Amino acid sequence: MEATDLQIIILVCVYFFGVFSCKFATQFFEVSHAARVVENAIYRCLLMCAKIHEDVTFLQEIKYKHLEEAGFEKPQIRDFTAVDKQITNHWKESVVQNILVYSPKEFSFALKFTNWKEAMRQLDEMHKARKGEEQWEK
Fold first, then answer.
1. How many Cβ atoms sit within 10 Å of the Cβ of residue 90?
2. How far is the C-alpha of 59 from the C-alpha of 55, rounded, in Å?
3. d(C-alpha 57, C-alpha 62), whole Å
4. What is the distance between the alpha carbons of residues 48 and 38, in angstroms, rounded to a whole number?
5. Over the stretch 61-87, which tens digit does the pLDDT of each residue have?
């Protein structure tokens, strides 16, 4: 049985369509995977920053308790508290700015925040989304 010219042309077209489809699908899945990796990196970075802030807040509470036990007066402790709060707020905004400035431009789609409050809101949303995914996986 011989193949006609039309059948050969159709086979060649089907072959090239398959090659093109495979290449396109591979690139699409690579980009999708890379986006998930970036979002996971941002999530982990924000989670780490939140945990550091939590630890600093805990240590500050211990500090204020020890200051009180050491006999410092309430106005002095309030002064320490005000300075610590100012330093902590500066640190939080500095962390966010450093993430925004030093992250690769390709990550910009995942950086949906400009300050600490927005970053923590994004972390909460990402955490809720992950909890939803875990429920579907079970």
1. 10
2. 6
3. 9
4. 15
5. 999 999 999 999 999 999 999 999 999
- Give the count of beta carbons closer than 10 Å to the beta carbon of residue 96: 21
- What does residue 31 show for φ and ψ, rounded to 5 degrees? -65, -40
Q: Decide: residue 92, CB within 10 A, 0-12 exposed, 13-18 middle, 19+ buried.
A: buried
Per-residue pLDDT reduced to its tens digit, 1-57 = 566 877 778 878 888 888 888 887 777 667 677 788 889 999 999 999 999 999 999
Please give the full DSSP string across 31-55, using - where no structure is assigned. Answer: HHHHHHHHHHHHHHHHHHHHHHHHH
Q: Please state the pTM of the whole predicted model.
A: 0.73
